[in-house]
Specification:
The protein is of the alpha/beta class and about 850 residues long. It has a domain of about 350 residues: Rossmann fold (3-Layer(aba) Sandwich). The chain contains 35 helices and 18 strands.
Length: about 850
């Protein structure tokens, strides 16, 4: 702005006669147009539009010809762009059409010297009109414009325009609900922006975050925005900053952080209102209303004023032609009225909500289904309530089927969590008969651990991701060596984090689809496979913990007390087992921790298993945990000691893992570095497997181990590992040349039939909404491995080596894995907290 004003001042120093010179006037008009755009970005849209209105009449003073045509096209382009930035996309279209008409004429009449410059301007106008079409939902027209602009950008080699068009194509795919494709285009744009125009990354991060929110990855979306919000605040570009705050608030809302969501939504609303973009300000107000609605619904106190506010906001959004947002506001008003018991008014409000369009956000669709289901339940129509929940989860399943990377597949569960919870409550309100038990089983299978429902169709084929992970491994190895040597690590750590975040983004679109969806398991399917075993599927509804038990072709519900108490006992037991893991604890300390652990295990056993012993008897069990119960090493409970137990993320996942055996063959034994107590472990295990292939110390590098795992029957890996809570697919095992990541294991074309993770806590660590259990073991199971043996808590080197010797001795005698592990763990369950995941069959 300062430079443009200086330019105008310099023009004013020229004599008055010069004002009749067409060149002077053209430059004067151009500087005013550029100043108007800058003022709109830095100040208010009204300021910028007023500048444009003031200078527009001067265009008529120019003689007709190319100069006037070019400036008319430029004026209309900037005017239309400002309207689009303010959210007035419908109003921007005639201006963009005019700009395109002027610029096409110029290109057609241009000589060779000017054609490239004028074509670049044409590409800009066509691209911006395409973006307005995307926002307005006119997607065929958007595709036409973006394809045409892309052809021109490629023909004339405009790298910045090509990058921007990748960004726009990402917006188009996001609007179509094709999130992996959107993230792919955003990734391509990001690579170019880093080289050509890093300032464009701010806008890109906003759009990437919006796509991630659509996939339920609220934490990842928030992290994206947290990276750029400080720089954006320094730059003070109020439009982008307001949008970033708005979507950061949406991420906080999905995370359940209502205070942060309220603060950021309020900040975005004030910023947009000062800027004069009323549409955006009202959308930010809507997000604040969602926070207030959630607080009111959770407290049980719904003031009439809040319903009135929602109705008024819906009307204002309709006046602003923001139809989808108006529909959301009316849905919130209806949901509040249902809770107030005013079902007739709620029904009337819902009648005014239009049918969702194909590109309506998934979150809005699920909220509408939830509201309709709650209304039906309040009217006493349980059948209609179940129908709405079933239809909503079917829509969610269709969206999940279109997802790419494993994180996207698992993240979408967030959007269906409330529908599943409502269905559970409705079933439980109906009683505990066999019919209700069967219904509850079916609902649990529809809602939990859906990522394990997919049969992967191919390995990882994204070469960029493969190369990126290799670089992460190299930098990670260098970082570890620097730490051991006592050298500075800040630069390496920053580089490692940067590479990992970039690889995470690539992983979201590593495949068009994760795999082929399998049908959800029915009670009949499970009963046919169980035989004499018992399947126990745990579930929580509010603070009520219960088990759905399938046995002998029957199904029943057993109530198990407080879910919060069970979670707290599990947390304390897990902490005790971690504390007693080190190999050389002082004996008095070991005894004290052991006593505490035994006490917590006994309390858990009394709550979870003893009420089921009448059904379970002495039979084997398949356990499907929920939430915190994934951290329980089940054989530590007295009722389950020495009992063969298999843990599965869902009954559907268990059935998939228990399918007929493949042609996998051979045994691979791997020992990673720095396992002093396990130096002779691989040799001892090899004695149980006559033809096993061994990889120890420097031979156990990542490429060698991955090749060995592909198609093998049994793989035993004794290596230090760690779980990455911010991205489970970067959980890792330390090998000779660095980390082997879960991402890479999921890429195997022929996953190993059984994997034993012998020296680390890498069972199902990260539990997302919908009981989507991720981690190193989860990646193995999701990619087709049938049985994984891993520790549910930390384990010392000596107990791990002893347990594995016992386990492999039994395997060599053809004992099934679950039975072999139960015997091995039963010797010392507190120091051997291993669990058998997946199938557990021989």
């Amino acid at each position: 702005m300062r430079l443009f004003r200086r330019g105008l001042a310099l023009l004013e120093t020229i004599s008055a006669e010069a004002e009749t010179d067409a060149r002077w006037l053209a430059l004067h008009i151009e500087l005013w147009i550029r100043l108007a755009y800058s003022e709109a970005e830095f100040g208010t849209v009204a300021d910028g539009l007023a500048r444009l209105d003031a200078v527009r009449p001067r265009l008529a003073e120019l003689p007709e010809g190319p100069v006037q045509t070019e400036l008319r096209g430029f004026m209309d382009h900037i005017h239309g762009t400002l309207l689009g930035r303010a959210g007035w996309d419908e109003a921007s279209l005639p201006l963009m059409e005019s700009a395109i008409t002027h610029r096409r004429r110029l290109v057609a009449e241009a000589g060779d010297g000017d054609r490239e410059r004028l074509t670049e301007a044409l590409v800009a106008s066509v691209s911006n009109r395409g973006l307005s079409f995307v926002i307005l939902g006119r997607l065929a027209e958007a595709r036409r414009d973006l394809d045409y602009a892309s052809e021109l950008a490629a023909e004339y080699d405009f790298p910045q325009k090509t990058a921007y068009l990748q960004h726009m194509l990402g917006d188009l795919e996001k609007r179509l609900g094709r999130l992996p494709q959107a993230l792919y285009h955003y990734g391509e744009a990001e690579r170019a922006y880093l080289e050509l125009g890093p300032d464009m990354l701010y806008r890109l991060r906003i759009d990437q975050a919006q796509a991630l929110l659509g996939a339920g990855l609220a934490v990842e979306a928030g992290r994206h925005l947290d990276e750029v919000l400080p720089q954006m605040r320094r730059q003070r570009v109020s439009q982008d900053l307001g949008e970033a705050e708005l979507f950061r608030a949406a991420a906080a809302l999905l995370e359940g952080d209502l205070q942060t969501a309220q603060q950021l939504a309020g900040s975005a609303q004030r910023r947009m209102r000062r800027r004069g973009t009323e549409g955006w300000a009202t959308v930010a107000e809507l997000l604040g209303l969602r926070v207030r609605t959630m607080r009111a619904l959770s407290s049980g106190r719904v003031p009439a004023a809040l319903v009135s506010t929602a109705g008024q906001l819906a009307a204002r959004l309709s006046d602003l032609r923001l139809g989808e947002d108006a529909a959301l506001a009316r849905t919130l008003a209806a949901q509040l009225e249902v809770r107030r018991g005013r079902v007739d008014h709620a029904s009337e409000l819902l009648r005014r909500v239009p049918r969702p369009k194909p590109h309506t956000p998934l979150e809005h669709r699920m909220l509408l289904r939830l509201c309709k289901a709650e209304l039906a339940a309040a009217q006493g129509n349980r059948r209609r309530a179940f129908a709405q929940a079933r239809a909503g989860l079917a829509e969610l399943g269709q969206a999940r089927d279109r997802m790419g990377g494993l994180e996207l597949v698992s993240g979408t569960a967030l959007h269906g969590q409330e529908l599943g919870d409502l269905a559970m409550r409705l079933v439980l309100d109906g009683g505990e008969s066999a019919t209700e038990a069967r219904q509850l089983f079916n609902w649990l299978e529809r809602t939990r651990a859906q990522m394990y429902r997919y049969e992967q169709v191919s390995g990882l084929e994204n070469t960029q991701l493969v190369e990126s992970i290799a670089e992460i491994r190299h930098v990670g190895h260098a970082l570890r060596e620097a730490k051991l040597d006592g050298r500075p690590v800040a630069g390496l750590q920053a580089r490692y984090n940067e590479l990992r975040h970039a690889a995470t983004r690539l992983g979201w679109h590593a495949a068009t689809r994760w795999g082929r969806p399998r049908p959800v398991a029915t009670v009949e399917d499970v009963a046919a496979r169980l035989g004499d075993r018992v399947l126990i599927s745990f579930a929580a509804s509010g603070d009520k913990l219960l088990a759905v038990v399938v046995h002998d072709g029957r199904v029943r519900i057993v109530r198990l007390g407080s879910a919060r108490e069970a979670a707290e006992r599990t947390r304390r037991l897990h902490a005790d087992l971690n504390a007693m893991a080190p190999d050389h604890l002082a004996e008095p300390l070991l005894q004290a921790i052991s006593a505490s652990a035994r006490k917590e295990a006994d309390l858990l056993d009394a709550q979870l298993m003893r009420p089921l012993l009448g059904i379970l008897g002495d039979r084997e069990a398949v356990l499907v945990p929920t939430g915190a119960l994934y951290a329980v090493p089940w054989n530590v409970l007295g009722s389950l000691r020495y009992r063969p137990i298999v843990v599965a993320p869902s009954a559907t996942a268990w059935l998939a893992a228990a399918k007929p055996e493949s042609d996998a063959e051979g045994t691979v034994l791997v020992r990673g570095p720095n396992l002093l107590a396990a130096t002779g472990e691989i040799d001892k295990l090899a004695a149980h497997h006559r033809h096993a292939t061994q990889y120890a110390a420097e031979r156990a590098d990542v490429r060698t181990v991955l090749d060995a795992l592909d198609g093998v029957d049994l793989a035993h890996i004794a290596a230090h590992g760690s779980h990455e809570p911010d991205n489970a697919l970067f959980s890792k095992l330390e090998l000779a040349d660095g980390a082997l990541f879960a991402h890479e294991v999921a890429a195997l074309r022929r996953p190993p039939r059984q994997v034993v993770l012998a020296a680390c806590e890498l069972a199902l660590n990260l539990i997302r909404p919908g009981d989507e259990a991720l981690g190193f073991a989860g990646a193995l199971l999701a990619s087709g491995t049938r049985t994984v043996v891993a520790a549910a808590s930390r384990v010392g080197d000596h107990p791990a080596a002893a347990a594995m010797d016992d386990y492999h001795r039994a395997l060599a005698a053809n004992v099934p894995p679950a039975t072999a592990l139960a015997d091995a763990v039963g010797v010392d369950p507190l120091r051997r907290p291993f669990i058998c995941l997946g199938s557990g069959g021989s």
